Each structure stands twice: as structure tokens, then as C-alpha cells.
Amino acid sequence: MGLKLEKVPYLIEMAKPVKHLSPYQATSSLEEIHDKPWQTPLKLDWNESSILPSPRVTESIKYFLAHDNHLNWYSTLNSSNLIHKLSEFYGLAPNQFLVSNGSDEALHTICATYLYEGDEVLVPSPTYQHFLVFAKQEGAVITEYHSKNPFSSDIEGLRLALQEKQYKICYLVSPNNPTGVCLEQDEVEILLETSPHTLFILDEAYAEFARKSAYPLVQQYANLIVTRTFSKAYALAGLRIGYVMAQSHIISNLSRVFNPKSVNVLGQIAAMAALSDQSYLMKFVEQVEASQAFLRGEFEKRGILSHPSKGNFMMIKVQQPKQLQLALAEEGVYVRDRAHLLEGYIRITLGTLDQSKDFISRFDRALEKINNK
Ligand SMILES: *Cc1c(COP(=O)(O)O)cnc(C)c1O
Fold it and tell me: Which atom of ligand 1 is nearest to 237's Cα?
């Protein structure tokens, strides 16, 4: 009471590695979309699913809220119910899974568990940018590997690059975001074999679209961690559910850092429901494939270079990526300018075939606008 507090003039210093980071720059925002209620948005910038999740998801959440509505309690620790379902689905033991608050949290946990200041990390580039934040935050030193052709897997180049230093971690994304390149299981295996002292993170956020995965390799290799998510093909980005598959000793190492309460109860329920509806998933995957075939044809007609992709997105090369992105946004189409990663490229998320037809007509209008400027 008698104590008078002075304003403290000192700025508290950030942790050293954090000083070199800058905040995430998003492109579209939901506010921006809500501000234009007259436009049906085509939100194709973040590789989210363009349709709602399986109806089973809403049903199971409604059922929970009506019957067992304990939102006041923490959810099932470690998502053990969901792990049980994943274990049946994949034929791996429950202790080979960790369920996380989005696969981003899995990547964060892996970095926090294995990386320390000065550790070397190899990242084939261009790649998913947010991983770099997690690795840098631990003070790791990142080496980017640039292949001559970013639209190839270039395993031999990567194998040689891995021999140059003692890399603690190598971060692979397959299918890769943003290039769409998918690694074969035997390609991953070559790297695991030839760099046994490097821990490989295989980020398979888009594996459902590729209809393939290298996850069976976790049974044989102690230097492999596979990360997956319900955010993309299962359409649950808003509920934040990801998971890790690895040998049990890796899972127990991650558990030292991991907070077993971090995954929310509705997300756990939703993920179980989504996993149970494989036919809904496959129908969407087929739509995305049809969209890619359609759009590649349309881009070819317009003389625009596009690349085949194993994910629900594709890269196209254009004259003025930034201007095109802005002109598309005026048409209610949100895409991602990736020109700072690969010159001239924008990345477009693929939705259903009907959405892609709608997309291409708005694309033409946007192109016309920038060509007339
Ligand atoms: C979208 C994405 C993620 C993040 O997924 P969440 O599970 O929503 O955290 C991780 N890795 C890659 C390559 C992605 O594209």
C-alpha cells in the first residue's frame, strides 16, 4: 500500500535463438472472408480441405455434448482412445504413437526433445516453413539442401549432402509442401540406412492424397519419426489433431517434453469419427485427383506451366505472382504466393472438381484484369 511502483524502463531480452525469428505472416484471414458475404470464398491458400469433414464428425461431437458433456474436465490423457483406434488402423503397437495438438505440436516436441544449441539440421528446400521456426528456436543450425530440380526427389544428391556433416536431424516432407514431390519407401530407406546417426523426420501431412506412406519403416528403423495430421485430408484443421509414429523408445523420449493434456476433447472425438469414415475420405481424395487432372489441362491450354503433385495442391508458374494473388483475392480466391521460395510460383490448394471449375473462371477474370493494367 505504501509501496509506490515505478515504471521499469528495462526491456527484458528474448532468448537468444528467438531474436532471429519473426512472426508468422498469413495471407487470407477469416475476417477478410466474412467481410465479403456476397462472395463464395475459394480458400485455396493453406491446403486445408475445401469441404467439411465427414458427417460422422458432427454427429459424434453432438452426441458428446448431449450425453457426456464434461467440458470442465481435461480430456483423456495422451488421447489413449484415439491411439487405440490408430493402433488398430495401422497395425502398430499403441506405444508407437503420440497424438499431438496438430502435427505442428509434434514437430515442436521432436525439436525440443532432440535439438540443442549448435546441433546441425539438414532441410531439403523449399519445404514447409514452420518446421524451421521450431528447429531455430532450439538454437539449431539449419543447412538447406537445394536440388537442381526442385520438382524431383533427388535422393542421391540428398544422400551425399547428408555425408558432409554430422546432422542430428534431417526433415523430409512427403508429399512435399510446396512442390508436391513424393518419396518412395525405398528412397526413404536408402537415407535411413546410409545415415544411421541422423534422426529423420518424415512429415506426411498429405500422405492420404498420395495413397502411400513410408510408415512401415518405423518397425525396422530406430532413426525414423513419421508425423501425420487430421488437418488436411480429414478436414479437421480447426480442431488441431496430429500424431507421430515411431519406435516406442522414441515415443517415450518425446513424452518427457510432451504435455499429455494438450489435445482437446472435441478434437479426439472428431478424429476417431473421421478415421472411421474411410469411404468419405477416399471420395474426397478422388475429387482432388480429378481436380488436378482438370486444372493441369486448363493451365496447359493457357500456356501456364504446372507440375504434377501428390498432395492436394499444385504449383504453377506465372508472370506476376504477387499481382495475380491480389487479383484473385478480389475474386474471392485465396492462393499462396511462393515466389520467395521458387521464383514465379504460386501454390493453389485443390478442392472438388466443381470448385476447380469455379476457380478457373475466376482465374481467367483475374488474369484479364492484370493483363489490362
Ligand atoms: C499443414 C502442414 C502441417 C501442419 O499441420 P497441423 O497438423 O495442422 O499442425 C505440417 N506439415 C506440413 C508439411 C503441412 O503442410
Answer: 8
pLDDT tens, the chain, 373 aa long = 567 777 777 788 999 999 989 888 776 778 888 888 888 999 999 999 999 999 999 999 999 999 978 999 999 889 999 999 999 999 999 999 999 999 999 999 999 999 999 999 999 999 999 999 999 999 999 999 999 999 999 999 999 999 999 999 999 999 999 999 999 999 999 999 999 999 999 999 999 999 999 999 999 999 999 999 999 999 999 999 999 999 999 999 999 999 999 999 999 999 999 999 999 999 999 999 999 999 999 999 999 999 999 999 999 999 999 999 999 999 999 999 999 999 999 999 999 999 999 999 999 999 999 988 7
Residues linked to residue 173 through DSSP beta bridges, in sequence order = 203
Which residues have C-beta within 8 Å of that of residue 371, sequence separation ≥ 6? none
Element (H, E) at 348: strand 345-349
* Gap between the Cα atoms of 227 and 128, Å rounded: 13
231 lines ligand 1 (CB under 6 A): yes
Angle between helices 130-137 and 102-114 (to 10 degrees): 30
The SS3 call for residue 148 is: coil
**Which atom of ligand 1 is nearest the CA belonging to 104?**
9
Burial class (CB within 10 angstroms; exposed 0-12, middle 13-18, buried 19+) of 324: buried
Question: From the CB of 102, is ligand 1 less than 6 Å away?
Answer: yes
Q: Compute the distance between CA of residue 252 and CA of residue 248 in angstroms, rounded to an integer.
A: 6
Cβ atoms < 10 Å from Cβ of 240: 21
- Rounded to an integer, what distance in angstroms lies between the CA atom of residue 109 and that of residue 103? 10
Measured CA to CA in angstroms, residue 24 lies from 66, 242, 315, 346 at distances of: 38, 20, 21, 18
Is this structure's pTM higher than 0.85? yes
Residue of 177, 236, 263, 315 best suited for mutating to test ligand 1, as the one with most atoms within 8 Å of CB: 177
Q: Determine if ligand 1 sits within 6 Å of the CB of residue 205.
A: yes
Q: Which among 313, 309, 304, 293 is positioned nearest to 363, based on CA atoms?
A: 304
